[in-house]
Amino acid sequence: MSTPTDTVKAVSWVSYILHFVVAVAAVVPGLHASILLLLVAFIADLIFKGDASGSYQESHFGFRLRSVVIAGLLYVVTLPLWLLLVLPGWFAWGLISIWFLYRIVKGMLALSDRRAV
After folding, report:
1. Which value, in Å, is the radius of gyration of the alpha carbons in the chain?
2. pLDDT tens per residue across span 10-20
3. CB contact set of 78 (below 8 Å; sequence gap of 6+)
4. C-alpha–C-alpha distance, residues 41 and 60, integer Å
5. For a tag site, which of 64, 69, 89, 96 has the least CB within 10 Å?
6. pTM
7. How far, CA to CA in Å, does 110 sit from each of 16, 41, 79, 86?
8. What is the pLDDT of residues 23-78, one digit of tens each?
9. What torsion, rounded to 10 degrees, do the Cα atoms 47, 13, 28, 62 define?
């Protein structure tokens, strides 16, 4: 297994921090984070994923990309719940947001231990 470059390490941490800010804002009522933060992190992950190939960092880039795509799909699938009543939509999106936050924290802990997620 190869050692990731300093650039890959830095991009990975910045990406996790941006994901974390968005995830916390999604869970805490009254806080708002721009979707732009998530897009910046997502694009950075796409660009640098190849540079992480062969290192423990490779799993982190894929993990973050999958987390964003799955959460996005879940948000879209549960969007009709908002049309029924506010409560089912709020509940569903709250669960998705908590799940997303859990995944980001799990990834950050693995990254701080320098191990694959």
Report:
1. 15
2. 999 999 999 99
3. 89, 92, 93, 96
4. 12
5. 69
6. 0.90
7. 11, 18, 32, 36
8. 999 888 777 778 899 999 999 999 999 999 999 999 999 999 999 999 999 999 99
9. 50
Alpha-carbon distance of 60 to 8, in angstroms, equals 11
Q: Euclidean distance between the first and final Cα of the chain, in Å?
A: 15
- Which residue type is seen at 45? D
Is the distance from CB of 79 to CB of 85 less than 8 angstroms?
Answer: no
Of the candidates 111, 104, 110, the one whose C-alpha atom is nearest the C-alpha of residue 38 is 104
| Cβ proximity of 103 and 67 under 8 Å | yes
* Of 115, 104, 23, residue with least CA distance to 66: 104
